[in-house]
Input
Amino acid sequence: MKQVINEELNRVKKELYLNAAARYFDETGYKHFKISDLAKELETSVGTIYNLFGSKEDLYVEYLILKMEIFLANLKAHEDSDPLENLKIYLTFKYAQFIQTEHHRDEPITNDPYFFHKLEISNHRVVEDIYQYLVRQLRMLVPSENTNHKHLAILFKKLSDGFIESYLYGECQAEQIVDETIEIFLHGVRGQNV
Output
């Protein structure tokens, strides 16, 4: 019984520490994140954090998974019967960091909004769940049985990743980023069928 209690205490402690770490990662980004600062904020030892997470990198992976789970929960909470609107919601949530900081474009982005690019979690269940969300929308938009909707979902995600990179290079503006992504994805660069 004591082992069960200890396991549950560690699970709760890990969850609380992860939530605190997430706020800290959001504020400082990975590069400036220090386990010692987190330990001080949590009034615990550095060793306790390492015992729960193993390393800063492992803690960061847990953070990324948490961010993806929050992202997915937001998608599901706002999903309705209009697949085009659902894709716009996906993009709005994905681009939110950039859209919110448009007026601070000269300031560096410190909270690492690139959690969509992290390969460490590319095989995680939450990533697959996000793809399934996209597949559902694309099946409604392109109802053909001959279409590989998972392939379209991957292309849609990669196109939106490219828009983030383009934004960072100053090649696109935040106020048009959602509509431009949808337009290029659905109609292509030339805006016509080839």
Summary: Residues 108 and 188 are 32 Å apart (CA to CA). Confidence is low (pLDDT under 50) at residues 102-117. Residues 1-54 form a domain with the Arc Repressor Mutant, subunit A fold (CATH 1.10.10).
